[in-house]
Each structure stands twice: as structure tokens, then as C-alpha cells.
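Lab notebook, bench 4. The sequencing result for the construct came back, and we need a structural model before the next group meeting so we can plan mutations. Quick request posted to the team channel:

Model the 3D structure of this chain.
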Amino acid sequence: MKKVEAIIKPFKLDEVKEALSEIGVQGMTVTEVKGFGRTGGKKEVYRGSAYVVDFVPKVKLEIIVKDDLVHQVIETISAAAKTGRIGDGKIFITPIDEVIRIRTGERGEDAI
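Done. Here's the predicted structure in C-alpha cell form:
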């Protein structure tokens, strides 16, 4: 099993969620986050004064998937979240040793 974490633009969330649902992803955790990458934020003008917004609002998706579904999930997120502009986001993949469903005690892939 793998954990797929995707940092995306907030307005792309519904599109990504629908695309993932179409390939069989049944659950995910979504968190509103702020951050910046190589560009270091963006410049804004407020009441005639320019300033830099260091932390840009983003959305983080966390999805646990079976190993055989990882590449399809990555491709789906990439296609649905892409705008072609700076700040489209990143995807991180990490291994998951164990999953336990608290309610039933199911373990492993059955608990996803």
C-alpha cells in the first residue's frame, strides 16, 4: 500500500475528486494548507502598496491506495489538477506498512 499526498490549487479540488471517484478511489482526507515553492510566493497590491504573500493557499489530499492503483491515481491527479501555470502543486508517494479500520478491526488492504 502507498500513501499519495497531493498539494493542489484549491479551485481544482472538485475536478480532482470527481476524476479519482471515476477510477474507484473511495476515500481521501482533504486539508487546507498554505505554503510556497521555488517561486517564494506571489506579489499582490493592496491599496496601492505592493507586498509579497509568502504562503499561498493550497489543498492537500491524502489517499491510501493499493500498490496496483498508485500509477493510475498519480496520472489522474496530474491530469485533473494541471493548469500549466506556476503553482500547480506536487505529488508525494510514501509506503504504508499497515492500515487498521478502528470500527471493525480490519487490517491491511481490507481496511482501505
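The beta strands are 2-8, 29-35, 42-46, 49-53, 56-65, 89-95.
Will bring this to the meeting.
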